[in-house]
Amino acid sequence: MFNEVDVLHRGLALQEKSDYDLAIDAFSEAIRLNPKFAEAYYARGNAYEAKGQYDMAVADYGRVLQFSPKEPVAYYNRGAAYARKGDRAKAIAEYTEAIRLDPQYARAYYNRGLAYFKMSRLEEATADYAEAIRLDPEDADVYVSRGLIHALGGDPDAAIADYDAALRINPRHAKALGNRANALAQKGDAEAAAGAYGELIALEPNDAKARTNRAMIYFKMGDYDRAIDDYTEAIRINPKSGRTYCNRGIAHAKRHQNDKALADYDEAIRLEPKNVEAHLCRGIVRIAQGNRGAALEDYDEAVRLDPKVSRGYFHRGTLHALEGRLDRAIADYTEVVRLDPNDAFAYCHRGVALTRKGEIDAAIADYTEAIRIHPTYASAYYNRGLVYLVRGWLKESLADLTETLRLNPDFAKAYASRAMCYQRLGEKANADADRARADELAAAGACA
After folding, report:
1. What tens-digit pLDDT sequence spans the chain (448 residues)?
2. Domain that includes residue 319, residue range
3. What phi and psi, each to the nearest 5 degrees, are found at residue 52?
4. Residue 445 belongs to domain with CATH number
5. Gap between the Cα atoms of 165 and 159, Å rounded
6. Interatomic CA distance for residues 362 and 387, integer angstroms
7. Where is 78: in which H helix or E strand?
8. Which of 6, 130, 184, 414 is deepest in the core (most CB within 10 A)?
9. 381 vs 38: CA distance, rounded Å
10. Which helix (H) or strand (E) holds 37?
């Protein structure tokens, strides 16, 4: 006949095989045979925790503590169960008691640090990680967690140092490799970041996130072909990600492959009908293909899905302006600047629409505000210079057009407009020179 210890061992064997239901039955039988058998409560608590039944786990760890009130591991495990429930305050209290009972308990410091991190108490988390490292300098996970705090604090070099320490302990630590790549990207070292993501991909070829992250690095580098290749592989691994289809569509659009871009945006929206970015991007491609009506539908849907997406109003306003619906364009640009008062482009575009309506004073005010926000915005100077020219404010026009050309020396239309200004000022030689330069740039553009 089996005693409670035999039954406990049977349950532990089942637990090793991840057969938690039968393991729980065995542990419960051991407890029936000996209601004070702390090891059985402890083992059953572990099994409940593995199944995600955290309240049951907490109860069993509590029974262990009734029999062994100075058992730090029971406090630690109850803390872990609370943490998985999302009750981080109780988790911290449990870890703290485990540390009081065993001040050398490195893992308790680490897990308390994790709980502090989840509560955005980063200084306390950093202190706990440091103590965990002091007690156990060979725990790679702690370095990775501390590195993340450094990265969030804007110190990618310190983050990389911690990730490197983790990788010296465990060269195959996937999270350390991925986070190190992220930190290199944060530093702006695109080549190194792409290489680091490559190391992670070599370790875990089916990591779709690593493929996507490297694709974004390639995209920022202007290497759209390699970005497309990585997005394609990420889609093979996870064909349900609308975001990845959308990102690949953006890369196709950069390669002027509008049909492929449109197909990707269509699939992104099929998978994720509320994907605002996909609607915006599809609208841009549809305009490029001459399908303005469908583009307007996309912009309407984008702002319906997210009334705070300023880009949706901006693109829709630009489309309204193209179609001559100036009041609607102005209304959309006005919404953009309400959402983002520092959007210089919206002020400039609204200024153009106001100019076309003949509301010159309001247009000048918008161009001036655009310039205040973005002092190197050549188009804002150019448009204000044109309005000044129309009004006959020749000195002001000359100043703006000259600044336009300082900012953009190859702007043919600005030379042509300044030539008109010089002509009206009676400066024929300057007018002729600017007119010749405008013709030269226009010819070069026609041949390009």
Report:
1. 568 888 888 988 988 999 999 988 888 888 888 888 888 888 888 898 899 999 998 898 889 899 889 999 999 999 999 999 999 999 999 999 999 999 999 999 999 999 999 999 999 999 999 999 999 999 999 999 999 999 999 999 999 999 999 999 999 999 999 999 999 999 999 999 999 999 999 999 999 999 999 999 999 999 999 999 999 999 999 999 999 999 999 999 999 999 999 999 999 999 999 999 999 999 999 999 999 999 999 999 999 999 999 999 999 999 999 999 999 999 999 999 999 999 999 999 999 999 999 999 999 999 999 999 999 999 999 999 999 999 999 999 999 999 999 999 999 999 999 999 999 999 999 999 999 999 999 888 755 4
2. 308-370
3. 85, 10
4. 1.25.40.10
5. 10
6. 11
7. helix 72-85
8. 414
9. 79
10. none
CA–CA gap between residue 236 and residue 387 (Å, rounded): 54
Last residue of a domain, one of 347, 370, 393: 370
**If 0-12 CB within 10 Å is exposed, 13-18 middle and 19+ buried, where does residue 67 land?**
middle
**Tokens (6 digits) for 273:** 């009908």
Q: Which of 327, 343, 370 is the last residue of a domain?
A: 370
Whether 440 is in a domain gets the answer yes
Q: Is 170 helix (H, G, I), strand (E, B) or coil?
A: coil
Closest CA to 187 of 143, 157, 163: 157
Spatial contact of 159 and 147, defined as CB atoms under 8 Å apart = yes
Taking each helix axis from N to C end, the angle separating 208-220 and 174-187, rounded to the nearest 10 degrees, works out to 20
C-alpha to C-alpha distance for 45 and 59, rounded to whole angstroms = 8
In the structure, how many helices (H) and strands (E) does the chain have? 26, 0
| Domain count within the chain | 2
